[in-house]
Design goal:
The chain is of the alpha/beta class. The protein is built from 10 helices and 10 strands. Strand 5, helix 6 and strand 6 form a beta-alpha-beta unit. It binds zinc ion. Zinc ion (ZN) binds next to loops.
């Protein structure tokens, strides 16, 4: 029997310093699509929804297309905007009847006039609809803000590995594979949240032959991450200084596992900030290898 999987997107990178509120019109300017109309709009594209559309074909899912919304980064979402798009997705889940899984495309730094942790709130509402046993996975921007609420209500947070972001499709395919494995009972992923020390500035965060590339490699080795996020000051909602970025990792491990996740102490992590110890080619290959599903994420 085909698994019923709800698929939705709700993206926004909010800059809480901006006085320009984000409205429904701002979403309409980029896209605000309800229901199944999102399929022809994104079929064949290399973004997250394109990845989920292909996953539906790959796994033979019976999809529930809730909608897709994305707006240019700006100030906080108005109450009306947040509630309209939130309800579009949550109501689709309520009307869907029995769901076996949920695949989302979120940013991870959305703030509204009434909600500081919008992604956490959305995930919590969806968890309330489907209950604790239905796997929920979402893609995130790599400079998303991780929250306990998000980690608690999602089974997997899969963030981009590239900045500029060119791997949305691959991350969605990865998230979909996790949901599929969870629905089949092969895995029971959950999220652990780690927020270690600050790393370096956004101006050197590009993953094309920069220190960030090497940082990703180092963190991958240290934490065996399923999700890595570099939280940059711009667009983030809890900013303590103008330029530093923080690195967060969220780890997914089988619920049945009795083993303890070993995460190096913060004092050992600054090694990730040191000058490269591996060649750029090695690092690029390592990241590419992870992109192809050879990471611990795929095995755990
Ligand atoms: Zn970004």
């Amino acid at each position: 029997m085909a698994y019923r999987v709800l698929i939705a997107q709700f993206m926004h990178e909010t800059n809480t310093f901006s006085k320009l509120p984000t409205t429904l019109d701002d979403y309409r300017k980029r896209w605000l699509i309800e229901g199944e109309a999102m399929v022809p709009r994104f079929t064949g594209t290399r973004n997250e929804i394109g990845g989920y559309i292909d996953a539906v074909k790959t796994y033979g899912w019976q999809p529930v297309w809730a909608g897709a919304a994305n707006a240019t980064p700006s100030g906080k979402l108005t109450k009306e905007t947040w509630e309209t798009i939130r309800d579009m997705i949550v109501n689709a889940a309520r009307k869907a009847g029995k769901l076996d899984g949920i695949c989302l495309s979120l940013h991870g730094a959305m703030v509204t006039e009434t909600e500081d942790d919008a992604e956490g709130a959305l995930l919590e509402l969806l968890r309330g609809v489907v209950g604790p046993d239905v796997p929920i996975a979402t893609t995130l921007d790599l400079h998303a803000n991780a929250t306990v609420r998000m980690a608690r209500n999602a089974n997997a947070l899969v963030s981009y590995r590239t900045y500029p972001h060119i791997d949305g499709y691959e991350r969605a395919v990865q998230a979909a594979a996790l949901v599929q494995a969870a629905m089949e009972g092969k895995k029971k992923p959950r999220c652990l949240l780690v927020q270690p020390a600050m790393l370096e500035g956004a101006e050197t965060a590009a993953t094309i032959g920069t220190r960030a590339t090497h940082a990703f490699c180092m963190i991958s080795k240290l934490a065996r991450p399923l999700t890595m996020r570099m939280c940059r000051s711009s667009g983030s909602r809890r900013v303590r200084s103008m330029w530093p970025i923080t690195l967060s990792t969220a780890l997914c491990r089988p619920m049945s596992s009795r083993s303890t996740t070993r995460i190096p102490s913060v004092s050992k992590r600054p090694a990730a900030c040191r000058p490269p110890v591996r060649s750029k080619v090695d690092c690029a290959a390592a990241i590419e290898s992870r992109s192809r599903g050879k990471s611990s994420f795929a095995k755990s």
